[in-house]
């Protein structure tokens, strides 16, 4: 196979290709890789129509890159996306068996939509392409492509955690789902823990074996399972943080908090992000360190997400209730402890807020990586860097060990970490930040893409088989 095989990316949502400061690092990294090699990005249009996955494909071309999308019917969106992806797989893979709902009907629709996407993708791919499928929406897509006769290289990357086999086994049809992952030549995970959970599932539930060189064997099928921690476009983010729009927002935040020190959190409003636990930690700070009352303000940016899903509606109620309770309990005429925003901000505005923050709390109960932690680091200014408080359950924890690492379930520990962050001397803040900055700028989104693609090109080759460049 030629080293410059065309790249085909499949993900639920597609693009944007050009970065007006709207796209996240992932879209930017993928768009760069597609542009360099030429390629195709295939996914859902975000629209529903009667024809659904049978709809006419919409195509946009920019240089050597094509974006191709198809619609879904309302039933497909309900079963595949809202139902199975977001009410079965998302909670289960985030270790929330208590929130997971399993319905035979949504499972059926999920598999059918994967089959349909594979069928439609076959119109556009050739065997020389490298096909890279993203995330928990498309576990079965590779298997369906193989069934339709696709013989080229197939890779899969899971952006979210992979739960331990004992937990995953609660999913009806779990063996089918993990078995389908074996159709890929390479499966990528964010952390060693996720990779180990996958390999253990294969070993204990599918009677497979772990093999040297990151390989896993099940029956006569041998695939590679590797770790590729995702990064951000750190340079652009640092530029955003120095932009005029960022400075305006930093100034707004500073004038809003007045003499208080700003603590921020930025997350989609999702139960995996530990927003409730973080607020409880902040409340405990005010209880355990009463001198903090009136001297700190917590800003939570929490754009609403998946509002059609019941658990997210419940979370919103709980979130707003808790904020009201904390504010009601501690507010003074000239000071409000918690400020929340549920409408999103631009990336430049966000960068400004990170820069003005004294502390950023990234406290998920479980998270594949968490890009906010990396963005916060990239946005700091060496002269006066803020402190990152990071959950031990975020994938980012393996790289960002110089953050203050917390257990988000331990409320007193969170309060103590906040107090430590608020009193941390400048020299220590700078030392910790420099170490993290070096990693965030080294392992960027572009590097992550490059490493995955290189591994996919090499997958299945015996060691030493790699052709010279
Ligand atoms: C999944 C995995 C993994 C947030 N609020 C606003 C806004 N954001 C942006 C952040 C960040 C992105 O959204 C969130 O990324 P995360 O990584 O934190 O989380 P997920 O959305 O859950 O992503 C995760 C990721 O995939 C990549 O593999 O790291 O673990 O769950 O970029 O900045 N952006 C704007 N306004 C907002 O108000 N513009």
Automatic annotation (TrEMBL):
Coiled coil: none annotated. SUPFAM superfamilies: UDP-Glycosyltransferase/glycogen phosphorylase. Pfam families: Glyco_transf_20. Signal peptide: none annotated. One of its GO terms (biological process) is trehalose biosynthetic process. GO terms for molecular function: alpha,alpha-trehalose-phosphate synthase (UDP-forming) activity. PANTHER family: BCDNA.GH08860 (PTHR10788:SF106), TREHALOSE-6-PHOSPHATE SYNTHASE (PTHR10788). Belongs to the glycosyltransferase 20 family. This is Alpha,alpha-trehalose-phosphate synthase (UDP-forming). It comes from Aureimonas endophytica. The lineage of its organism: Bacteria, Pseudomonadati, Pseudomonadota, Alphaproteobacteria, Hyphomicrobiales. The gene is otsA.
């Amino acid at each position: 196979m030629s080293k410059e095989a065309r790249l085909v990316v499949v993900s639920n949502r597609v693009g944007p290709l050009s970065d007006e400061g709207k796209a996240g690092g992932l879209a930017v990294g993928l768009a760069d890789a597609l542009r360099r090699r030429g390629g195709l990005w295939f996914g859902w249009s975000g629209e529903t129509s009667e024809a659904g996955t049978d709809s006419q494909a919409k195509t946009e071309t920019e240089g050597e890159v094509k974006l191709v999308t198809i619609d879904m019917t309302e039933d497909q969106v309900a079963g595949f996306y809202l139902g199975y992806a977001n009410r079965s797989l998302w909670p289960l893979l985030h270790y929330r068996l208590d929130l997971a709902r399993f319905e035979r009907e949504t499972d059926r629709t999920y598999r059918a939509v994967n089959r349909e996407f594979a069928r439609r993708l076959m119109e556009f791919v050739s065997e020389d392409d490298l096909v890279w499928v993203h995330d928990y929406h498309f576990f079965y897509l590779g298997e369906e492509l193989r069934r339709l006769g696709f013989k080229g290289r197939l890779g899969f990357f899971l952006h979210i955690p992979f739960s331990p086999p004992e937990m995953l086994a609660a999913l009806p049809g779990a063996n089918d789902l993990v078995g389908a992952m074996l159709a890929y030549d390479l499966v990528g995970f964010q952390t060693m823990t996720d990779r180990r959970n996958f390999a253990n599932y294969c070993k204990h539930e599918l009677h497979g074996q772990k093999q040297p060189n990151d390989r896993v064997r099940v029956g006569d099928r041998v695939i590679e399972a590797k770790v590729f921690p995702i990064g951000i476009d750190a340079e652009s983010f640092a530029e955003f943080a120095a932009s005029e729009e960022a400075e305006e927002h930093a100034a707004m935040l500073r004038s809003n908090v007045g003499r208080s020190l700003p603590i921020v959190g930025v997350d989609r409003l999702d139960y995996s992000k530990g927003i409730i636990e973080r607020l409880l930690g902040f409340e405990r700070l005010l209880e355990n360190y009463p001198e903090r009352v009136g001297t700190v303000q917590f800003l939570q940016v929490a754009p609403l997400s998946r509002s059609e899903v019941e658990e997210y509606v419940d979370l919103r109620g709980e979130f707003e209730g808790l904020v009201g309770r904390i504010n009601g309990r501690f507010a003074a005429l000239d000071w409000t402890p918690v400020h929340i925003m549920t409408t999103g901000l631009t990336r430049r505005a966000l960068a400004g807020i990170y820069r003005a923050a004294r502390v950023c709390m990234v406290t998920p109960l479980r998270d594949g990586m968490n890009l906010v932690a990396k963005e916060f680091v990239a946005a700091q200014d060496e002269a006066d860097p803020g402190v990152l408080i990071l959950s031990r359950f975020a994938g980012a924890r393996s790289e960002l060990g110089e953050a203050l690492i917390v257990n988000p379930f331990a409320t007193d520990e969170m309060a103590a970490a906040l107090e430590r962050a608020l009193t941390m001397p400048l020299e220590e803040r700078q030392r910790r930040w420099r170490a993290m900055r070096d990693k965030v700028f080294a392992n960027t989104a572009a590097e992550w893409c490059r490493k995955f693609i290189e591994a996919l090109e090499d997958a299945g080759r015996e060691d030493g088989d790699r052709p010279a460049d």
